[in-house]
Amino acid sequence: xxxxxxxxxxxxxxxxxxxxxxxxxxxxxxxxxxxxxxxxxxxxxxxxxxxxxxxxxxxxxxxxxxxxxxxxxxxxxx
Length: 78
Description:
Helices cover about 60% and strands about 15% of the residues.
């Protein structure tokens, strides 16, 4: 099965006519995007651990307001 996936990737590369430089550039862009996502997730997790976080959502079906609160391990700062 793994061998089949490898041949599918090779066929796609051949069909699109990608050169190794193009593949490297695409992988670099993907790596940068994943780093950006990691940074955002880390910042949100850090915020949640330090201070309370409250999210208010309106239900699209009934219009009811739902509030979700996550309490951190430190007192809120003024």
